[in-house]
TrEMBL record:
Residue ranges of domain Rhodanese in the record: 40-123
Organism: Autumnicola patrickiae
Tree of life domain: Bacteria
CDD domains documented for this protein: RHOD (cd00158)
Name this protein carries in UniProt: Rhodanese-like domain-containing protein
Amino acid sequence: MKNIKIPVIALLFVSTIGCEAQKRDGVKVLSPQEATAMLAEDELTLIDVRTPEEFAEGHIEGAQNINFLNVNFKVQMQQLDKEKPVYIYCRSGNRSAKAAEKLQEMGFQKIYDIEGDILNWEG
């Protein structure tokens, strides 16, 4: 039993540090409930970073599809207003976390990553 507790505690500790690091680095992770409330604002950009095929299967209303895996991802993102809040999501959180890092490097000021992404949104 003790062997199981140590890895679980370590995993929770590392997860907490990861979330805090994202917040310190300028990316705020939002729950789907928090995102729903904030998406009512007019001055924001909602980006689905999944593939066009995934986007066609279903997406959050009002989202633009800019595929993170596309070689033109940065070029497409450069066309957006860096001063407006940018909300991003993918299927499970991996691509949106990587996209958030890229957006920071590109100078975006207000980046929001929707936690759990489309899987939580649909739920």
